[in-house]
Amino acid sequence: MKASIWFVACGVLKDAIDVLVTPIFTRILTTEQYGVFNVYNSWFQIVKIIFTLYLFSEVFNVGLVKFEKDRDRFVSSTLGFVTALIGFFLAFYLFLHDKIDRIIGLPWYLVILMFAHVLVYVPYYCWIRRERYDYHYKNVAVVSLLYIVLQPVTAIAAILWCRLPVNPGHTRIIAAVGIQIFIGLFLYAGMMWRGKTFFSGNYWKYSLKTGIELVPFNLSRVVLNQSDRIMINYFSGPGDTAIYSVAHSAAFVLQAVTEALNGALVPWLYRRLKVREWAGIKSVINGLFIMVAICVFGIDIIAPEIMRVLGSEEYYVGVYCIPALVYSVFLIFVYTVFTNIELFYGKNIYVTLASTGGMIVNIVLNAIFIPKYGIVAAGYTTLVGYLVICVGHYVLMKKCLAAEDIKVSDLMDMKIVLAISTLMFGFTIACGFLYQLNVIRWIFTIALIIIMIVTKDKWLKLIINLKGEKK
């Protein structure tokens, strides 16, 4: 129970702090300077998958279960494999850096910093996931707090007082990444010392095979999140990128909750699937879907107030992107539950097929509608992309379970999911009109608060049950 609470709290706190410091950065940086940071971050989110095959994510979770009796060597050899990959891509960049710099629109020193950023990002998340499996919540809480708090504090101090001879947006990047490098190298050294294995033919083969299979899946998730900003920057410039990024941050703060919930769900779910014990799975998964849906309604209702807090008046137009983006977070959570099951049964190709389709749809729609309708269109093209992925994963998960002689209804109630999704889609469309009717909005807000207070014990019990069972 303690582990579940702390893991969820740390996951939520990270994105919560990102949102809380956004009003500071939107006021000490111009929209163009703030946009530069978001362009860097968008490229980082993409290249970290290419440079690492995203081996610190789903592949790593499954490996911790698969190689349970040799976890330390598995962890250190994974870091060794990622280090070799990054070295290969760095050599490739140095050979063609002029052309690459022009394509991504960033100076060379930020691109070099990006390589270091990826290298230290991996050990942090490998360490977090490794500690979660042993319920070492105190270690995770302490390191996470340092990692989360020091980055924005250092960046704000550097912008206000250091006066580096570069764009202040670049200063923010350099300061924040510097903190990650310090913590990441410390964790890297600790895990390598503990496992004492840089190269392992068996583990490197596992990493290469499963990582390559899942690159399209992981890349599609990031492209759906980041291609909007890259394409807005291309068509409209960093100013509009900054506005869309603030709206995106406001909506995707919910993803901190969903990722934390999924982080608590995965070990619990995998243990149940391993022994083919279905009892309790349906009630937990259905309950989590309903909980996330309620959070979606809450953010939609107060979106105008969120945008006014996060940015000045020039950012407010981004409020009309929030309903579509926050609905996208719900779809992400739903299809992530589907992919958890696909990955457990080794159907990595299923994950890849569904995700690639959504990524292609999103890019094509962005190219068509962003030039015509601007940043609001980007929110709805993202929603469509995630909807395609969600439907695809459901079909493939159903096929995967059939091969294991399991019914979807043994694990979740799809009628509930469909009803919730339909209701939220209608509300998403209505929000554009609702934002002009403040009295009705606040009636909805008060009603939602009352519902959450009345049912709070049910939701707390649901979270506790994920890891609170004594057996």
Structure description:
The chain is mainly α. The chain has helices at 2-28, 31-52, 58-66, 71-95, 97-104, 108-133, 137-162, 168-195, 201-236, 238-274, 281-301, 303-310, 322-344, 348-373, 375-403, 414-434, 438-454, 456-467. It is built from 18 helices and no strands. The model has no long low-confidence stretch (mean pLDDT 83).
Structural class: mainly alpha
Order of helices and strands: HHHHHHHHHHHHHHHHHH
The percent range for strand residues is under 5%
Q: Give a quick account of the main beta sheet: strands, pairing sense, barrel closure.
A: none
The averaged pLDDT comes out at 83
Shape: globular
Give the tally of structural domains: 1
Defining traits:
18 helices, globular, mainly alpha, 471 residues
Give a nutshell description of this structure.
The chain has 471 residues and is an all-alpha fold. The protein contains 18 helices and no strands.
List the helices and strands and how they pair.
Layout (H helix, E strand, L loop, with lengths): L1 H27 L2 H22 L5 H9 L4 H25 L1 H8 L3 H26 L3 H26 L5 H28 L5 H36 L1 H37 L6 H21 L1 H8 L11 H23 L3 H26 L1 H29 L10 H21 L3 H17 L1 H12 L4
